[in-house]
Amino acid sequence: MKKAGVWAGIITLVYAIIIFQQSLSLDYSTRLGPGPGFFPLWLSGILIVLTLCYIVDSIRHDVVKVSEILPGGQASKNIISTVGGLIIFPIVVPYLGFVVSATILQFIMFVRDFKWYIALGISVAVSIILFLVFQSLLGVTLPVNDFGW
Amino acid sequence: MDVFMPLLQGFDIAMGGWNLLYCLLGVTIGMLVGVLPGLGPTTGTALLLPITFSMDPIPAIIMLSGIYYGSLYGGTVTSVLINTPGEAASVTTCFDGYPMAKQGRAGTALGVAGIGSFIGGTVAIIGLVFIGPPLAELALKFGPPEFFSLMILGLVMVVGLMGKSIIRGTISAIVGLTLSLVGMDPISGALRFTFGELHLMEGFDFVTIAMGLFGISEVLLGLETSMHAQEPPKVGKLLPNKEEWRPTMMAILRGTGLGCLTGLIPGSNSVIPAILSYTLEKKVAKDPSRFGKGAIEGVAGPETANNAYCGAALIPLFTMGIPSSPTIAVLFGAFIMHGLTPGPALFQNNPQFVWAVIASMFIGNFMLLIMNLPMAGMWGKVAMIPPKILYPLIVIISVLGAYSVSGSVWDIWVMIFFGVVGYVMKKIDIPMAPVVLTFVLGKMIESSLLQSLMYFKGDFMGFFARPISGVMLALAIIIFAVGIIASIRNKRGMLADDVEV
């Protein structure tokens, strides 16, 4: 089971089955005609058939291996740290506010290619500029900490 | 013709107030997006969509469409100067543009590309001016069955033309459709697929999905390869030699025709007319061996074609409400976000908006011509911004954009999720464009289907009893069947992929 297509097919199949099962709990038809369950039931039914075809096709022909999805070496570190930074942001932003959280996210990305103090400097500067532009100029209310940033 | 008065009024609005500035801002950002490798028109428009939240509809769409057509101009600069296409439609420009630059003729390559782009883009918009209103009037006579059939035809063309496998394309399209159904059903009021999550009651937001699929996934892919910027060569003389004018203008004319025609076909993208034009130029040339070594027609034709495509692709959006490519789908999302419904009623209900946007495109194309001819060298330097600075900026702007959708971190999570999904989809070669196209059309497809079935009293064959919807559905079935046959024979390699991103 090293073929990536097979795994993608299985995940899509599970998704399709969940939608299908949920659609069954919605009305298929109403007094006026088709109900809220009509369209999703058909769609998920077709999706189940297609994903099964896709899984079979992937078993026979797919050449993309699971190991090829994440490249090795530096590239893999870059991707993992970026996704990690992205995940940290929504977790900490309600407590630390936008400026600090954005600084952390960018620092994680910049520090790979710059000295730590330069990375920190750019991250702080960009975060403050964006905070001012979005909050003041564009009128977007951003999450802030107890100090108001 | 009765299009002149509204068009003049459109010019009046487009040139008044802040609109001219937004047009300039849009085309400048478009140029930047086009010039910077790793950022294409879809990513650019999706990333900047949230910035327009607080704007009025007219300046917002003027700016976003400026980004769209501006990026196609921008992509040329890097193709010619550093042999790196800034966006996919400019790949063909590298073939002859870069050899021209090496011969010291970078300026001429950029010059003919700029002139061609201007002519192609302007002719396509003139097409929109004249074809738009009558086509919209015709579409106004469409009922739900015709609209349903039209959308199905458009989607089948997208699935049929995109990616290497029709199964993967269809799966992608259906997943997009099911995602659009999450939330409250507008007809019955029933909650669907919310799993008790309050945020899902209003469904997924288009902006977060588009930014995830196109913005974040592009960054993740870009992080795999380290690109090194190289010093661009000198630009030099801008205009072609005297004897080159005739072949150049002929290539521009052919490119305009090809681009305009391809723009009308849903499922196409700006790469197809560029490749078609390059092939055509090579075929009609007296000495095809010059191609690849700096043939001026090889730059003029494709560059004209992709810009003509760009204008023409707006015709199905303005007249039928059908987005034909991922970037147009983002524009479609922007229309909806600003309370406008793309489609035939747009010309009737919001004439000021339509004509102001169309007029702004004439102005924007002219601005781009000026930006490209004398200032080409400057844009070449912009291309040297390294990805190590660019990518963190894209990421933080995406996060900000997602947050501003509803002022909640929920949307950031959704964006991250779709970013990772988009990255994996690209890796395993599942096209992303159908997800976005069906997502924006999902609710309309469902309501037109349900309304039609109510009208036909549940009889699906009713669609075939009406001539227009019958013909369109039959055409959709034929295209789908041809796609399956091509898939089985494994001859889909040459067809378009997710290239416009």
Describe what you observe in this structure.
- The complex is a heterodimer of chains A (149) and B (501).
- With 149 residues, chain A is mainly alpha-helical.
- Chain A folds into two domains: 4-69; 74-137, no CATH class.
- Helix content of chain A is 73%, strand content 0%.
- Chain A is built from five helices and no strands.
- Chain A has helices at 4-24, 38-61, 66-69, 73-110, 116-137.
- In chain A, helix 1 packs antiparallel against helix 2 and helix 4 packs across helix 5 (116-137).
- Chain A starts with a helix and ends in a 12-residue tail after the last helix.
- Chain B has 501 residues and is mainly alpha-helical.
- Chain B is 70% helix and 1% strand.
- Chain B has 22 helices and two strands.
- Chain B has helices at 4-14, 19-35, 41-48, 57-82, 91-102, 106-140, 144-161, 166-180, 206-224, 245-263, 271-284, 297-312, 314-320, 326-337, 345-349, 351-372, 376-382, 387-406, 409-427, 433-455, 462-465, 467-488, and strands at residues 183-184, 191-192.
- A two-stranded antiparallel ribbon of chain B has the order 1-2.
- In chain B, strand 1 (183-184) and strand 2 (191-192) form a beta hairpin.
- The longest helix of chain B has 35 residues, at 106-140.
- The model of chain B has no long low-confidence stretch (mean pLDDT 86).
Principal-axes shape call of chain A: flat
List the helices and strands of chain A in order: HHHHH
What's the Cα radius of gyration of chain A? 23 Å
Q: What value does the average pLDDT of chain A take?
A: 90
* Morphology of chain B: globular
Please write out the topology:
The complex is a heterodimer of chains A (149) and B (501).
Chain A: H1 4-24, H2 38-61, H3 66-69, H4 73-110, H5 116-137
Helix pairs in contact in A: 1-2, 4-5
Chain B: H1 4-14, H2 19-35, H3 41-48, H4 57-82, H5 91-102, H6 106-140, H7 144-161, H8 166-180, E1 183-184, E2 191-192, H9 206-224, H10 245-263, H11 271-284, H12 297-312, H13 314-320, H14 326-337, H15 345-349, H16 351-372, H17 376-382, H18 387-406, H19 409-427, H20 433-455, H21 462-465, H22 467-488
Antiparallel strand pairs in B: 1-2
Helix pairs in contact in B: 1-16, 2-4, 2-16, 3-4, 3-9, 3-14, 4-5, 4-6, 4-12, 4-14, 4-16, 4-17, 5-6, 5-12, 6-10, 6-12, 6-13, 6-16, 7-8, 7-20, 7-22, 8-20, 9-18, 9-19, 10-11, 10-12, 11-12, 14-20, 18-19
